Amino acid sequence: MSVAREPRTLIEVSDLHVHLAGSHVLQGVAFSVPEGGVTALLGRNGVGKTTTLRAMLGLVDARGAVSLDGRELTRMPTHEIVQLGIGYVPEDRDVFAGLTVGENMKLAERNGSARYDLVYELFPELRERTDQRAGTLSGGQQQMVAIARALLNENRVLLIDEPTKGLAPLLVTEVARVLERAAEIATILLVEQNLGVVHRIARDAVVLDQGRVVHTGPARALLEDSEQVHRYLGVSGAAH
Amino acid sequence: MDTFVLLTITGLGLAAMYFLIASGLSLIYGLMGVLNFAHGAFLTVGAFATWSITEHLGWIGNETLRFIAAGAFGLLAGAVMAALVEFVLIRPLYRRPIEQVLVTVGLALAVGALVQGIWGPEVQPFPSPQWMRDTTTVLGANIPNDRFVEIAAALIVLVGLQAFLRRSRYGLIIRAGVENRAMVTALGIDVRRAFTLVFTIGGVAAALAGVLSSVYFGGVEPHRGTSLLIFAFIVVVIGGLGSIEGSAYAAAVVGLTQQYANYYASSGLGDLAVVLLLAIVLLIKPGGLARAVVAH
Q: I want to staple B18 with a disulfide (CB 3.0 to 4.6 A). Which of B114, B121, B168, B251 is the partner?
């Protein structure tokens, strides 16, 4: 007889505070991310989702504690945190516009075992555009570069911020498919406004409101409860 | 015609020195957001290190070899000083731009005063090889040979920097860092190493400008770094912050404008013409020439 085991906690965030330009943006954010699968970080605009990811990476000054597999990250510089095996796909993609697609990827290589096979399998278009300047790509193509950079290394965790923002419906489906595949090889903490995508790929959900965590639990149960969706996310109806 | 040729080549010689200073300033500002007012001090240290070591190199019979050996020492002094400034003074003040400006201004004043305190305020004659002081006739104009050396040195630095930025891993990091430093660190790269490297490269280029300007002006003096730095800043702004190509174009425009205005308008008007040029460029292209002339 086998017993279903609870996935162990990979990331633990506790009492995280961030002040930005005099505003108390994160007010004691606390949640945990289990190993494997996708955990969605949800909430209305401006509640601190992006700031939470940036604070976890040391990109903004924060007080509190963030640990990866029991290792405290809070006082480490960003590059050392990332070297522990974290890939980051920022909200605005932040591809280097003056660099070519190939240079963007080369810059992201952290060691000799870059997974170009995987990246080109997921985004065959990038192989053809290696010598094209990233600044001349469409929004969707730039998003591919941003995700490819994070998938290039063998990361344990991917912090992905609104990967479908501003994309056409067909591309949204494409990105969701890639994230599903990525979730097979890494733990994903995903900030996403598209609840259809969240419903499709996320196992767990953490909801932020005004700089605090107001709900944690299974993603589907949350999204299928229209009253909770309306209360926490300000959206009418539930995602299916 | 011969006067025009002389003015042009002399202007380009001056431009070469502006470029050598401006390239480092531009990279440092582009990557780190640091306005390095101490950059002129690297020039001064390079020039005085070269000048002061020369008298100890009398055992090198060939004057060209002696000049090269002394110059190499000057460049080393510039490199060491720049790396130390970044490591000791700038790094602890990362994310504190006001303090960075204060410390670099203070260092510039201190180095100028220190050098003046040791060697005095006068111009000290600089022993350059005889062939550099000789002239070559170009289209009827007798051009001092050092002008060609200055132009060639700047071109070599321009080509070398471009190759470094385009072909090397650190060059890639620097180009990316000029665009978005935070994202470079978010890819797991310790961008601080690139900071030290960029400062060191800037220090070497400024020290080279120090050696060449000593030949150009015929001597070393404690405050030349400061006076050339002002024009180098203008070059950086006109060229577009963070762009090496932009600095090269802008240096040529500034050097030539200064020479032509001084001769064809009135002596002393060159500096005013450069400031006017700066105002016009800022009005028409606030981001500098780089975005208009070359895609960065």
A: B251
